Amino acid sequence: MNQSNTPPKNIVLIGFMGSGKSTVGRELHHRLGYPLVDMDYVIEQRAGKPITAIFAEEGEEKFREMETMLLEELNDPAAPRRIISTGGGVIGREENRALLRHLGYVVWLHAPTAVILDRTAKNRERPLLHTDDPAARVEALLAVRKPLYAETAHLKVDTAGLDCGELATGILESARYFFTGHL
Predict the structure, then answer these.
(1) Phi, psi (5° rounding) for residue 18?
(2) Is 107 within a domain?
């Protein structure tokens, strides 16, 4: 972990799958010009296979190890400011929660179960939803993860009913207050 006194300088998006992290991340990237790091995409590129294959062939724990290693890399104090879009389960490890908060302003994008299911219904690349009852699976995962998202985030934003432009505007306004004195 970065032990320097360099203040955090990134905007980090956390939240359940289908909450809008990738979409809002792209909007923030366009507005600020900061590089966008989509952690799931980076892991897929490095592994040379999709996350579904990582889960199937190496297991969820191996994927979680890859997330932690990437967070440690992203914690480079010499790196430029970035927008970081995380995987939905990254907050499962205590060390990851600490790394996320150290990286910068952590925004929890939240959506109700019905919205999550609607947004993810056509996507077959969601290994944790490969089940007979995706709604029950989402509810069970949210029951575990909500307190961890809450513990990690500086800001919680409900993404249902707002477009990515509105979400980005709100996040940037809040981030400005967070970074006051840190830039």
Answers:
(1) 80, 5
(2) yes
